[in-house]
Amino acid sequence: MGRVIVITSGKGGVGKTTTTANLGMALARMGRTVALIDADFGLRNLDLLLGLENRVVYTALDVLAGDCRLEQALVRDKRQPNLALLPAAQNRNKDAITPEQMRHLAGLLSEKFDYVLIDCPAGIEAGFKNAIAPAQEALLVTTPEIAAVRDADRVIGLLEAHGIRKIGLIVNRIRPQMVQSNHMMSVSDVQEILAIPLAGLVPDDERVIISTNRGEPLVLDTNLSLPGIAFQNIARRLEGEKVPFLDLDAPYNTLMGRLRRFFSR
Amino acid sequence: MPVLQAIRELFERWFPRSGGSRDEVKRRLQLVLAHDRADLTPEMLEKMRQDIVEVIGRYVEFDAEGMEFSLEMDERVTALIANVPIRRVRRELLES
Fold first, then answer.
1. How far apart, in whole angstroms, are the C-alpha atoms of residue A210 and residue A206?
2. Given this model, what pLDDT does residue B46 score?
């Protein structure tokens, strides 16, 4: 049975879908078979970030309605045959599917794939409840901003109430320069507040936008960018490897910078 | 470790950080999360404060102005902190 992991956040626009696409691709490149479920019915985007939008024929709803087999709905990635996407329906809303049906789909996929990653919609309503229903573990994406961290905290409570105890924190869009000038919470600030184990940290980077423009996840680059390395490291940690966290403060490692960090912990 | 803490405080005094918004955002977050996690409405909190004041008032005279009553948060545990400066113990109560 494969691992079923939900990628969630509470707040929208913090990088759930980007994280799902990159982790899925990174794990597939490491030789694992991966199925991605887009649980954002009505606002599907995962197909776009993967560059698979032109190949979507059937969706999860067609599978549930018996209009096609699961295999027919899965979009296999041509660049990476280990990766498959189960698209969400775009012309329906979040009530089109139930938590029970979601469990059914994830169950079928976890029989065939090493990993089933579920891209959760924003919010904590029906779509969120559907997305977390089949998950044994969660990756919580947040940014170092007050609203995102507050929503993340709420989501931790809901995940725990749902029996999901294994939750890893991903702090996305860090701007080291702003942390240095004391205008942004650091990764350890966020982690201290949310009090869950850190799964990874990703710097803010223009190349993330460029990669979404092209529909090519960052981890596909031959020369990995810093955010690409960050996502790849998270995938390696999921595989159980001990990978040190990126040191985004490296450019600021002057004597005074080091002293200040040491003393202001 | 108190020694390390003292050195850190000294360092902060010698080389104060430029007034960034980082400490402010942390403080605001901690306050709002303490409330979110406790799931107490401001009305409930106020009612609780009044009840506690009433009970304490039976035993001691205290400085109502200097009283602090707040929710604080450490790790994932929310604590209700009440700071009540006592003026005088009500002797009459002890003797009865």
1. 7
2. 87
Query: Which of A:242-261 have CB within 8 Å of B?
Result: 256, 259-260
- Interface mutation target, options A255, A263, A265, chain B, most CBs of B under 10 Å: A263
> Do the domain assignments include residue B58?
yes
Q: Which of A157-166, B49-58, B68-77 has the lowest mean pLDDT?
A: B68-77
Residue B93 pLDDT level (bands cut at 50, 70, 90): low
Domain edges within chain A: 3-263
Can you state the angle between helices B22-38 and A146-161, rounded to 10 degrees?
A: 30
Percent of residues, chain B, with pLDDT higher than 90: 14
Whether domain A3-263 has CATH 3.40.1390.10: the reply is no
Element (H, E) at A23: helix A16-29
- With beta carbons less than 8 A apart as the criterion, state whether A47 and A56 touch: yes
**Residues A238, A167, A84, A113, CA torsion sign:** positive
Round to whole Å and give the CA distance between A130 and B51.
Answer: 42
Give the C-alpha separation, B7 to A252, whole Å.
22
CA B2 vs. chain centroid, Å, equals 22
What lies within 8 Å, CB to CB, of B51 at 6+ separation is: none
B25 lies in some domain:
no
Total domains in the fold of chain B: 1
The mean of the pLDDT values for chain A is 95
Q: Domain span at residue B74?
A: 40-96
Whether B44 maps to a domain, the answer reads yes
Instruction: Return the residue of B nearest to A153 by Cα.
Output: B33
CB A41 within 8 A of CB A96: yes
